[in-house]
């Protein structure tokens, strides 16, 4: 009897493991394997990750239903769209234990005031990646993409993310974010159509191709450019002087999630500073969790892809959700561009 009681005491004293699963739908090559391994070991929850390459791809898949996903990671510009479509659960991250670690500047964001739906995943900038061994000119300009020099023609990739590319093009022709001015948008349309013959591709997941020299320039995200530079020291990242967006991707639970408790456990888990740092160390972007800096690599504190030059900070703007009338015009231009 004594042995039985001791055995029971040991069981009760050991960590409680959930015997569940979690299905995450996220951008490709964007989730730290080390962090997932840690989460599975600490919780007993088995994680499956499925990739997508753009916000529009994710939105279409979720709206179609029957997807089987529990968590999605939309950009801030798409969070209101997901909420408006009834696709996200009001999971109240602001009531979770680790919410206390969220950096105050990322709590009352325009796309999710007070954080009733989402938790920060990563944040960064959209700029221009250039192989400086091929082109030695100014890389802090969107002209690298929209009016490229001879050295770069036929060697350019543009990410398949409408808002990022349209935003850069709108500022390049002198417009403002979310403009519905048809004269400005005609200039944008003409600029994009004239530039496209000089592009090689409009693809996602180009880190290896930039590193190998298969692509020489492109519209890109700063963390992806950082990872390419780690493999090829000639890779540089430019901040267009005419304007570049600052964005944040956010984890949220889907309204039709089957594994809600497991999903809430995960959202709370990634708000822990050490776990948030694992995400940043892998993807090479900043995150919205205070105290995570102490766990991140030293090179992220001085990286040119993370630290915006003082003279270019004024060109940054926070990406926001545009009105439907503007988005409809952008979609028409984008659809034509992809033909």
TrEMBL record:
<dbReference type="GO" id="GO:0015846">
    <property type="term" value="P:polyamine transport"/>
</dbReference>
<protein>
    <recommendedName>
        <fullName>Putrescine-binding periplasmic protein</fullName>
    </recommendedName>
</protein>
<keyword id="KW-0574">Periplasm</keyword>
<feature type="signal peptide">
    <location>
        <begin position="1"/>
        <end position="18"/>
    </location>
</feature>
<dbReference type="GO" id="GO:0042597">
    <property type="term" value="C:periplasmic space"/>
</dbReference>
<dbReference type="InterPro" id="IPR006059">
    <property type="entry name" value="SBP"/>
</dbReference>
<dbReference type="InterPro" id="IPR001188">
    <property type="entry name" value="Sperm_putr-bd"/>
</dbReference>
<comment type="function">
    <text>Required for the activity of the bacterial periplasmic transport system of putrescine.</text>
</comment>
<dbReference type="GO" id="GO:0019808">
    <property type="term" value="F:polyamine binding"/>
</dbReference>
<keyword id="KW-0732">Signal</keyword>
<comment type="similarity">
    <text>Belongs to the bacterial solute-binding protein PotD/PotF family.</text>
</comment>
<dbReference type="Pfam" id="PF13416">
    <property type="entry name" value="SBP_bac_8"/>
</dbReference>
<keyword id="KW-0813">Transport</keyword>
